[in-house]
Structure to design on (226 residues):
């Protein structure tokens, strides 16, 4: 299982949950908060898939997209 | 802008939040998600650290050029955020006025009432005359074929 640390002042829990929902077909997620950070545990559903290497990074990029979408003024 | 590190396909750019708002940093970073994987975090001294990792294999020089692009984009987004805040009241006023203009005025409401009264009058008149919708004194309901039927047929 991989773990991503996301600072709570930068990333909103609502967005993290939305991203986890969007990626739920390819990985399972566990979100816990410890101090100022959200710890996102990520387990690929298909351990043999070659795409697993990038799931974590794509997840982070998707969070940037969600955050940007929420800041349009 | 703080210290920057470049190592192969990874760059960390430190940004002072006092100079650039977090919204601007996030929006600027969004412009690069097609080329790099991006993670934002806080550094030890409170600066925002924007971590870029190249998606494709590129030379360190080419990837390092991304720094400059990001810094320019950061400036652009900061200005956009600042202008957005400055013009917020004006924008809200314009929208309020536009929505207020859509609200029907008193004159239009009076006109609607007049039309309703006129319709009521016409219907009452028709009732008095004993008009029936089944009657067809002008022959409007007669089909065209029947009206123009040749006498030979």
């Amino acid at each position: 299982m991989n773990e991503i640390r996301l600072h709570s002042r930068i990333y909103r829990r609502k967005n993290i949950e939305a991203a986890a929902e969007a990626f739920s077909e390819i990985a399972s997620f566990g979100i816990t908060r410890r101090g100022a950070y959200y710890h996102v545990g990520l387990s690929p559903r298909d351990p043999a898939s070659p795409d697993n290497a990038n799931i974590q990074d794509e997840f982070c990029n998707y969070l940037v997209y969600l955050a940007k979408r929420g800041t349009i003024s | 802008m703080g210290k920057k590190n470049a190592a192969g396909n990874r760059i960390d750019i430190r940004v002072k939040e006092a100079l650039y708002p977090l919204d601007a940093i996030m929006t600027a970073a969004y412009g690069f998600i097609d080329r790099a994987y991006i993670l934002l975090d806080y550094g030890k001294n409170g600066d925002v650290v924007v971590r870029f990792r190249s998606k494709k294999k590129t030379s360190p020089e080419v990837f390092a050029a991304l720094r400059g692009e990001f810094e320019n984009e950061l400036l652009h987004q900061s200005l956009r955020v600042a202008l957005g805040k400055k013009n917020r009241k004006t924008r809200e006023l314009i929208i309020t006025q536009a929505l207020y203009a859509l609200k029907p005025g008193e004159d239009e409401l009076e006109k609607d009432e007049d039309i309703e009264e006129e319709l009521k009058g016409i219907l009452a008149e028709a009732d008095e005359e004993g008009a029936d919708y089944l009657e067809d004194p002008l022959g409007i309901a007669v089909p065209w074929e029947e009206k123009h039927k040749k006498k030979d047929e």
